[in-house]
Amino acid sequence: MKIFSRLYRRVMMWAVHRHAPVYLSMTSFVESIFWPVPVDVMLAPMALARPERAWRYAALATLFSVLGAAFGYLLGYALWEPVVQPFITTMGYEGKMDIARQWFDQWGIWVIFIASFTPIPYKVFTVTAGLLQMAFLPFLLISLVGRGLRFFLVSGMMVWGGVRMERKLIQYIDILGWLCLAAVVVAYLLLRH
Hints:
By secondary structure, the protein is an all-alpha fold. The protein is 83% helix and 0% strand. It is globular, with a radius of gyration of 18 Å. InterPro entries: DedA_domain, VTT_dom. The chain crosses the membrane at residues 20-37, 57-80, 107-125, 137-160, 172-191.
């Protein structure tokens, strides 16, 4: 079934849409607070479709992601009980919040860098940083460095790989898509409690 190749073609059409930078900015902002879809899903095809704008897209993603992180921090800091805690309970994220607190105890500010650069859910750590009243300026600076490294790396890979990488991606997209889906299902089954 060629589901992923059809989806890929559609995403590439969206990537060149005239409002794509606005959508990227909005996605970057909300992903740092609650949105489950990583920014890379939108950034990579945009950088691949328009490599001459890749660095601008990475800068937009970084800026709006850090602004979203600041908003998430403020939610955790000022609106934990009336807003955030009920949302966490509804989404079943209590365990993730406990893990985030443990990681903050163990690694301190470096957990922000780890969460901002890796696929770990950054949003959990932005809100937890506010809840734990972490120093705001270091939080912002570490977020800026981590998110910037991640998004500029993604854009750089798309520029570097260019047309060759796109041809290979199109050739194997369906296989890769099904493998990723299988990996997500296996991870879910292994990690659920």
